[in-house]
Amino acid sequence: MRILLDTHVVLWWLSDDPTLANEIKSMIDEEPDVFVSPATLWEVAIKQSIGKLAAPDDLVERIRDSEFRELPVRFDHAIEAGRLPLLHRDPFDRLLVAQARCEGLSLVTRDGHIPKYDVPVITA
Predict the structure, then answer these.
(1) FRET pair for 76, CA 20 to 30 Å: which of 62, 82, 97, 102?
(2) Taking every annotated instance into account, which residue ranges of this chain make up the domain PIN (predicted)?
């Protein structure tokens, strides 16, 4: 299975947070095609800089250096994100939805707005 992780899922996985179900954690640990978008690192860095996320200063580097596969942001992703209906106003989540749709990935998330889009979702 090919999956893309939402930002909160990455954070829960990195911190071994019990919020993340063991079944999802095992899937993330065992699947070879687990992707993280640069948008996730961008979101984390912004939230840290404005004080919305208390985390180690090197958190974005920890995410970058994890075993996850990078899913680069491409032109098609930006076009798709811009054309999505405004069911969700968060630009980071909209980009993740677009990437998952364009690349045929399932998005692992607990965000209740994301299933409103035509994208495969695995509830975290």
Answers:
(1) 62
(2) 3-118
Contact 103, 124 (CB under 8 A): no
3-state helix, strand and coil shares in percent for the chain, rounded to the nearest 5: 50, 15, 40
Task: Check which CATH number belongs to the domain holding 10 and give it.
Answer: 3.40.50.1010
3 state SS of 35: strand
Q: Hey, what amino acid is at 29?
A: D
Q: Count the neighbouring beta carbons within 10 Å of the beta carbon of residue 107.
A: 26
Residues in the chain: 124
Contacts of 63 (CB under 8 A, 6+ apart): 10, 14, 36, 40, 41, 44
30-59 tens-digit pLDDT: 999 999 999 999 999 999 999 999 888 899
Flag whether pLDDT at 88 surpasses 90.
no
What global pTM score does this model have? Answer: 0.95
